[in-house]
Amino acid sequence: MQRRLLFLLNPRAGVQKGQPLLQLIQQKCEAAGIAYAIEHTRADADYSILKEKIKAEQMTDVIIAGGDGTISAVTAGLRGLPVYFGIIPRGSGNGLALAAGISKDPAKALEIILKGKAQPVDGFLINDQFSCMLSGIGFDAQVAHDFDRQSKRGFWKYTQLTLKNLASVKPYAFKLKAKNIDLSVKAYFISIANSNQFGNHFTIAPKASLQDGLLDIVAVEKKNLFSVLLNIIWHIRFGTFTHDFKKRGGITYFQTSELMIQNHEMAPFHIDGDGKETAAQFTVKIVPAAYSLLMP
Predict the structure, then answer these.
(1) Alpha-carbon 130 to chain mean position
(2) Distance between CA atoms of 141 and 198, rounded to whole angstroms?
(3) Cβ contacts of residue 270 below 8 Å, gap of 6+?
(4) Could you give phi then psi for residue 123, rounded to 5 degrees?
(5) Is-contact 290 151, C-beta < 8 A?
(6) Are 123 and 172 within 8 A, CB to CB?
């Protein structure tokens, strides 16, 4: 079947330099003889309405030019279709693209897309909401909620909000239940990671893989905050987490395919960097080979 690409462009995503993306898409696709169409991403994040267009126009690939939140919403809405997904990273962190080895350079990302080599990658459900990369409860979710309300985006704005929230950070009470694990913790945040990236090469779960059928759980627990931050930086920098259950230096780390989290103090919640309504309990389950991603 001849390839037909549907590009979804997020005009609000990160600040970009270089050749305008629309011009680059036109140039590359026409040179490769590949048909394409362009749509804007949706403020309501409902991409199910594109299903009929994709079927009617026999689109074979959906290409997302945006950040992790946009990628998450698009794959959630369209992953049941027989299409490949591609990424042109244009977000503040670009965690999924970095984990998949996709260049932040739009021209190089397009080369990966046009080669058409797709691999199945995992996702996961958290209270029946789809996440393609990383979700969290606690401190990082509060930053995500604050970031959602900003008119200006980008790495430095995210960093500014992170530092601002550090001044008032507090631990929350959680209970974690998984196979052979029943644990109560007071944690600043819990990350549920399908990829190793927060974004911007900040690696929260060094052993995480997009294709291993497992989720990596990281709980940063109540302790002297300065000591915790030093431990996080050390373990992230040198990749000293292991696959086995570990409880060290204020950090609990383990892998599982299913998890239940009781959120006793209604800590804030995010999915792939977008703030969501929290809940008193979260049921988490891996979705192996959830969709096919164009990768190097």
Answers:
(1) 10
(2) 12
(3) 135, 136, 140, 141, 144, 145, 276
(4) -135, -170
(5) no
(6) no
Neighbour tally for 171: CB within 10 Å: 20
Tokens of 200: 């911007």
pLDDT average per 10 residues of sequence, the chain (296 residues): 91 56 93 94 90 95 93 94 96 86 94 95 96 88 57 54 61 94 91 74 73 92 58 52 54 92 95 92 97 97
- Output the six-digit token pair for 16: 């970009």
* Cα–Cα distances in angstroms (integers) from residue 154 to residues 150, 163, 185, in the given order: 10, 15, 32
Tokens 């036109």 belong to which residue?
26
Count Cβ atoms below 10 Å from residue 52 Cβ, excluding itself: 9
Which phi-psi region, left, alpha or beta, contains residue 216 (left: φ > 0; alpha: ψ -120 to 50)? beta
Its pTM stands at: 0.82
Residues making up the chain, counted from first to last = 296
Helices in 79-221 by DSSP H: which ranges? Answer: 95-100, 106-115, 139-148, 155-166
For tokens 């696709």, the residue is: 29
Tokens of 253: 């780390």
